[in-house]
Amino acid sequence: MTLLFSLYHQSIARFIVALLFICTSFQLVKAQVKPLDSVMSLLNRNEIPELREIVAMHDVEALEKSDQALYFLATGGIKYAVDDFENAYKDLQKAKNNSSNKRVTFMANDYMMELSNSTTELHVAPESLMRENLSIATQLNDPTLLIKSKFYFMFKEIQLGNYSQAQDICYEMKKISLDNDLKQELIDTEFNLGTLHYYQSRNDSALFYYEKNLADVVAKKDTFDIAVRLNNLAMLQTAIGEHQAAVDNLIKAAELIKDKNDKELSVGLLRNIADAQTAAGNYVEAIDYYNQFISEEDSLQRSNIAQNLKELQTKYETAEKDLENAELTAKNLNSENKIYLLLFILACITGIGAYLFNRMQQKQKLLAAQAETQKQREEKLLRDQELAGIDAMITGQEKERKKSLKIYMMI
């Protein structure tokens, strides 16, 4: 009996262990399937390989609409990272169309604005996307998103040459960063302030911001940010005549990003190195860098991409406008139907009134005609009577004349 009891408990124990093993295995398998909810954080960290894994694990057709938005946001970000700009733009539009989440919409818009700014030199993002993102950031009361949305308005003013207005926006961004202890946003904003001082030929202020900013990003060991800061510092050094220092910083920046797969920045650096070499009097080196720049620039096909993106944006905005008009039409349909019904009733009343009025007019005309006929009959009767009297008088006179003539002849 004791043995049976022991065996029974051993069986129960084995069953529980097996059940726990199955549950644990299930949880491990489940944990291996990365959820789409992580897409936005991965995009913020630019973790493209992880995004590819997530996309490969999902069939977009089987997903709910909200998950489809995240799926297309991921594919749009992946295509953007490899410079497949046109298809990236299309996927980002799909993400926006399927999204009911304001943050997903904001990120899709942000990528589309980046695409607009990247495809042609001095190109400004579509105004509609800028305003939509500013509205979303304000509604969510998110300081990070507010700074991001204000950046594009600042950038637009820079492209238009309105440096004072751009600087005002930049100081707003700096205040938001300080008020909310946003360290990275503050670093980026101060870098933009340095650039604005450079554009306004305030070289001392620009140098202060650039050197401080470079120290901040070097401490963070962010090679991309270091390369961007070195590029702008070199532009300032060229402006103040430190040509060889500018060349050295630009070459250092190009070396930092050579394995980063950022063709846009690498091509821009080639052009800047060529210009700096020319300013430094290194003409042979300048020619070599110019040739490299021309070769790489042609491969980007910026003008064609920009035109295609512009057409895509126009089609998208037209479709959105048509949708808004359709919704407005549907919303006002009941009111319009009521108006049409009232107009129909009014038309019927007017028609009936006109018909009755016309009948009354016809009746009055008929009575008038009958009265006129009766009057004419009476007048004719009177005339006939008068004529008969005259005729009788004439006949009587004729008889008297003949009678007198007869008497006269007898005499």
Look at the structure and give the mean pLDDT: 77
Strand content: under 5%
Largest β-sheet summary = none
What structural category do the secondary elements indicate? Answer: mainly alpha
Low-confidence stretches: 1-33, 398-411
Q: H/E order of the elements?
A: HHHHHHHHHHHHHHHH
Distance between the termini: 191 Å
What's the total count of β strands? Answer: 0
Task: Summarize this structure briefly.
This is MalT-like TPR region domain-containing protein. This protein is mainly alpha-helical and 411 residues long. It contains 16 helices and no strands.
Written description of the protein model:
The chain is mainly alpha-helical. The chain has a domain at 31-141. Helices cover 86% and strands 0% of the residues. It has 16 helices and no strands. The protein has helices at residues 2-32, 39-44, 48-56, 65-81, 85-98, 102-119, 127-140, 143-159, 163-179, 183-199, 203-220, 223-239, 243-256, 263-279, 283-300, 302-410. It is elongated and about 125 Å long. The N and C termini lie far apart (191 Å). 27% of the residues are buried. Mean pLDDT is 77; it is low at 1-33 and 398-411.
